[in-house]
Design goal:
This protein has one domain: Glutaredoxin. The protein is globular, with a radius of gyration of 17 Å. The chain has a seven-stranded mixed sheet with strand order 2-1-5-4-3-8-9. A two-stranded antiparallel ribbon has the order 6-7. Helices cover 26% and strands 24% of the residues. The chain is an alpha+beta fold and 187 residues long. The two termini are 30 Å apart. The chain has five helices and nine strands, in the order βββααβαβαββββα. It has helices at residues 46-56, 58-63, 76-85, 103-107, 145-160; strands at residues 12-17, 20-25, 33-38, 66-72, 96-98, 111-112, 117-118, 120-125, 131-137.
Length: 187
């Protein structure tokens, strides 16, 4: 079953965020756009490049009213240790959620049970707490924050304009389509 258009299931987690441990739950998502950015583990290879790429684009996400939550099955203490020891991770200013109980990873169906780690999964959640975008990558394939930013803009556009759709490669400001019988077979 697809998670698209389903509500984020209840969770409670501790995050490392701006030098503090903070509690996060699904109720805090309401009223804002959110990205859950799952990655396999702290102190690895591809993961810091992705998290650094998100940070490089974080201000653009914030301008769109989007909060980013990176999530791994590591503890919040491990997140702090990684933050304190890595130049790349030390620059992160978005919350790093800890999921040592695997609750969040199971809720988003990205937990690799036999390994106890999460798949490389990205989920965009709308202000109603519903999942609008689901993306899964194999563990050895990194993601691109600029492409994610484009997808968020498209999701926000169609939410604000429910009678329109965004075609392939749509960029902000470009033409959209208004589905109708007149378009069938003409594109």
């Amino acid at each position: 079953m697809s998670l698209l258009n389903t509500e984020v299931k209840p969770f409670k987690a501790t995050a490392y965020h701006n030098g503090e441990f903070v509690e996060v739950n699904e109720e805090q998502l309401k009223g804002q756009w959110s990205i859950f950015f799952f990655y396999p583990a702290d102190f690895t290879f591809v993961c810091p490049t992705e998290l650094g790429d998100l940070q490089d684009n974080y201000e653009e996400f914030k301008k769109l009213g989007v909060e980013i939550f990176s999530v791994s099955t590591d503890t919040h203490f491990t997140h702090k240790a990684w933050h304190d020891s890595s130049e790349t991770i030390g620059k992160l200013t978005y919350p790093m959620l800890a999921d040592p109980t695997h609750t969040i990873s199971r809720n988003f169906e990205v937990l690799i049970e036999e390994d106890g780690i999460a798949e490389r999964g990205t989920f965009v959640v709308d202000p109603d707490g519903k999942i609008q975008i689901v993306e899964l990558n194999a563990g050895n394939i990194g993601r691109n924050a600029e492409e994610l930013l484009r997808k968020v803009k498209a999701a926000q556009y169609v939410r604000a304009n429910p009678n329109e759709v965004c075609p392939a490669k749509w960029e902000e400001g470009e033409e959209t389509l208004s589905p109708s019988l007149d378009l069938v077979g003409k594109i």
